[in-house]
Amino acid sequence: MADDRQVIAVAGAGHLGRYVCEELLASPDFRPVVLTRSTTTDTTWFASKNIPTYPTDYTPASILSILNNTSATTLISFINLASNAYITIHAALLQACQESHRCKRLIPSEWIGNIDDYPLKPAFYGTTREPFRQMLRAQNSVRWTLVHPGWLADYFLPAAKTYMKPIPHEFPVDPNGWRVCVRGSGEEEQSWTCGRDVGRAVVALCRVKEEWEPVTYVAGEWSTFNAAVKVMEKFYDRPLPRTEKPWSEIQKVLEAHAGDEELAEEAELAQVEELMVMGYMSVPKEKTLRQRGKFFAGVGFRDLQHLLHDAQGVDFI
Description:
Strand order of the largest sheet: 3-2-1-4-5-6
Number of helices: 11
Structural class: alpha/beta
Strand content: 15-25%
Radius of gyration: 19 Å
């Protein structure tokens, strides 16, 4: 029997991309294929899910061959780089889509916060994502949207419960070490979305027949890190040891590296911390809720309390 499901190609499906792959598999309408960097990439997880993988060097010709051979209709990227290699690879993805027989929709790797109001934040997005956004705007043969979920709420969960790799040096709440380091006051508004819900939202976008909007937002909750800490403490019935990092300390790092040609690790961290303190990770509420009604009526977006409850009852969220 012929398989009439649409093929969705996924590039860089390491963490968040796995949720998208699983939700595509769960849909009767789609099936995923995955582009991998080389033949040495560990594809065990994908093989266990019967998801085909295709090695590529991310040149346009290599990508084009995969898109045409699989008859993919949409390409989704999770390739997260803070260097100019991001532009090179995504330009190749776009070119391959333009030259392909069927793949005329592209979701580039963005997955951050409010780019409507702060398109150049963090600063390494201004030097990598913004130039590629200009390439997208300059063409009309490939449909595209930039998807932004705010923080991934999975970082509030124990590592064994999620595909998302812990980032305790970066995300304020460390549920594995059971501590919190609040940047700024902790009262700055943030938004976050569960990775599984992001995956379901991406599948819903793949079903959309009409034109996508240039930027698509999703959110499970708007809150603050201080409020999130209270939710965590109440849910687990234990206090979270707290330290604080003032904005003045973060500013000093940003200023010290302002003229750097290459992004130092501490500068990249400071740029992410700036997102927290300035509220850049809070996606615009009115637009997000409007798009929820337009594109995601069947997707249930969980807040932190709901996510913690769901995670407690399962081995894996």
